[in-house]
Design goal:
Layout: H1 4-11, H2 16-22, H3 27-33, H4 36-47, E1 55-57, E2 60-62, H5 78-99, H6 112-119, E3 122-129, E4 134-137, E5 140-144, E6 148-153, E7 164-174, E8 189-198, H7 202-205, E9 207-211, E10 215-220, E11 224-229, E12 235-243, H8 247-252, E13 281-288, E14 293-302, E15 313-319, E16 328-330, E17 335-339, E18 344-348, E19 350-358, E20 364-373, E21 375-378, E22 389-396, E23 400-409, E24 414-425, H9 426-433
Length: about 425
């Protein structure tokens, strides 16, 4: 029953976050909270334009537009939109400055944590059941590595797996990040869709990665791991591995319904080099179990001979089975750790593989972070240097394949990597370099 003029006067004293919140109450409040006069004052005071729009009278600031066009010729909400766009652009500029310096070993920005802090970035998952109801899971544990971040969600209120249809992964950023304060839970924010997974028939339609006494793990590309309580059709936890390559863009620049699409790579032809696209690669490989790192190394000067191009793949041998000088020990017994509010566990013979393959100028060429498992290949190895069981790890996506062989040495209780081979899709190479193989 309060007159709109009085409400408008009250709204003029609110800060930006309160003004946006009060606009969500009802249509009248929304219309009043979009008032151009209020937002022009906020716009001019915070962003300090060169033109003086407001005249000072004694100790108070009164709105005195230089012309009617500043207010009356603009649609309601115009200056609100302009303010939000300017603030968003300022944050993106700051982020671009942070991600410019690159790590010479990984070819990725080495100030990712600072950039995430500046943006206020966090991640949530949204489970949608077959009736259309959405369940938002926010609480997450983060684990940062050289080239990726692993995010673990657990809750006591998971919906039954039988009724879950999809899982959506979102990056969430506050509309106006404040580095001095943690983002408000109910403050204005935006979502960026990173990936969408279909969980119907999860146990039949996905890869069974491993199990321990309490849970069984199922994997879906890209980088999703779902833990199911043994003997029950209920979710125990969800884990996602996100590679730093394009992580900020995917987490910030997409919309709530459409994923961010990076600009296509423009190939630069090289008519001088007859082996163009076949040499000069560098690999950074990180193998971890979320809580501990088993192997982290960089391999340079990788190449492929034309005779090694078969079945639509370029073969890059990183660690050769025949060259024992390059065989690498892994620290500890491989396993993937998980936890919930009550239980903790470790699934043996599983780990997260972070792969970053760079081209000859050090630009990320093929990157992924994904949970993988080891499988027993044979009882004992035929190598003279190592006598033990051989395990293999295989990974494949649309851009390539990874094949790893490990030998378990019972005497020293360690794994030795005796073979690491990458198979890169010729289609990927041809599109990247503008060549034909």
């Amino acid at each position: 029953s309060m007159p709109p003029e009085i409400l408008l006067k009250i709204f003029s004293y609110l800060d930006v976050l309160s003004l946006l919140s009060v606009g969500c109450v009802n249509k009248l409040f929304y219309d009043l909270a979009n008032d151009n006069g209020i937002w022009l004052k906020i716009y001019s005071s915070c962003l300090q334009p060169k033109k003086t729009i407001w005249k000072m009278k004694s100790e108070q600031t009164e709105a005195v537009p230089l012309g009617c066009a500043a207010l009356h010729d603009k649609k309601p909400g115009y200056w609100k939109k302009e303010y939000i766009l300017k603030q968003t652009a300022a944050v993106k500029t700051r982020l671009m400055q942070l991600v410019k310096p690159l790590d010479p070993y990984t070819g990725l920005p080495f100030k990712n944590k600072e950039a995430m802090k500046v943006s206020g970035l966090s991640w949530i998952i949204v489970l949608k059941d077959k009736n259309g109801k959405e369940h938002v899971i926010e609480k997450a544990n983060l684990s940062f590595k050289d080239t990726s971040v692993t995010i673990l969600w657990y809750s006591t209120n998971w919906p039954c797996l039988d009724v879950v249809s999809t899982l959506k992964l979102f990056g969430v950023t506050p509309l106006f990040p404040d580095q001095s304060k943690p983002p408000k839970k109910n403050g204005p924010h935006r979502r960026s869709l990173i990936a969408e997974y279909h969980l119907a028939n999860l146990t039949e339609g996905s890869v069974a990665l491993g199990a321990d006494k309490l849970v069984q793990l199922f994997s879906l590309n890209p980088g999703l791991l779902v833990g199911i309580w043994k003997g029950k059709n209920e979710i125990a936890f969800v884990m996602v591995s996100l590679h730093y390559h394009q992580l900020l863009e995917r987490s910030i620049l997409g919309s709530a319904t459409v994923q961010y699409a990076p600009p296509p790579h423009k190939p630069v032809l090289d008519d001088i080099d007859p082996e163009y696209g076949l040499h000069g690669y560098s690999l950074h490989l990180d193998m971890h179990g979320r809580s501990c790192t088993y192997m982290c190394g960089t391999f340079k000067n990788l190449f492929c001979r034309k005779g090694d191009i078969t079945n639509g793949y370029l073969r890059l041998t990183v660690v050769s089975l025949k060259d024992n000088r390059k065989h690498l020990p892994l620290a500890g017994t491989l396993g993937l750790s998980w936890e919930t509010d009550v239980f903790k566990g470790n699934v043996k013979d599983c780990y997260v593989m972070n792969l970053t393959l760079l081209d000859e100028i050090g630009k990320p060429f093929w990157c992924f972070s994904a949970p993988v498992c080891m499988e027993l290949s044979s009882k004992t190895s035929g190598l003279y240097d190592y006598m033990g069981h051989i395990y293999t790890t295989d990974y494949a996506d649309s851009e390539g394949k990874v094949c790893i062989k490990l030998v378990w040495l019972e005497e020293t209780k360690e794994y030795i990597m005796v073979s690491l081979v990458l198979y890169v899709s010729t289609k990927k190479v041809n599109n990247w370099y503008g060549t034909t193989y």
